[in-house]
Every structure is written in C-alpha cells, then in structure tokens.
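Writing this down once: the sequence line spells out the residues, with the fold written below as integer tokens. I am pasting one below:
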Amino acid sequence: MEDVLISDDDNVLRRVPTFLPNFIKPDGTISSLAFSKKRNEDGLSVDLERLTTLEITVQDRSRFRLRRINVRVVRTDINDGLDVVHNPIGDNNAHCLITGNITGSKQRQLVMRSEEVVF
C-alpha cells in the first residue's frame, strides 16, 4: 500500500468503544480518555474518512460510536506539534495516526472540536 497525502481539508474518524466506562461519561458524552493513545502506539489511531466507509470504521454500532474531526483543526487549531500521518495496517488502508504529544488538554480539545457521526 502506498502512503497517502493527507490534506488539511480531510477528515479523520475516531472509533469510541461504548463498553469502556472511562470513555463515556454518565451523561452519555464522550470523555477525553477516548482520545488517549494506548501505551504501545506511536499515535492516536484514526481512519481517513475518504478511504473508508462509516460502516467499516465503526464495525459494530452496538459497541462503538464515531467521532469526526478535520485535519486542519488538528494541525492548526489544536496544533502544538500534532499531525495526522497515513499509517496503513493489515487490510486497513485508511488507518492513520494523530502524532505528537497528546496531553490531557489536547485530548479535551480533540473531543470538543470533533463531532458525533450519526448514520
């Protein structure tokens, strides 16, 4: 698979598990922990929207929700070293990473600047 150029006009999708209580607040909103990197990851796992479908990214609507965020928002508005890079894995050519130091403050901004995808 070839690396794909990601423009500021692109959107990425973050799949949020609804079965992890730390990711969903009691009022049903998304916690900033939903935008935290796993310990062994080089970045925050997302899918490039134009290379996938909502159904493929969410996998199971009963267990996951989707958030959409614009790449320009990540790179320019939140910024401070954040970037979105193509990182295909296995058969998922849409896989990307939000890289950089994703602090608690940046996690909150990612949640606030992203939108729920309803489909």
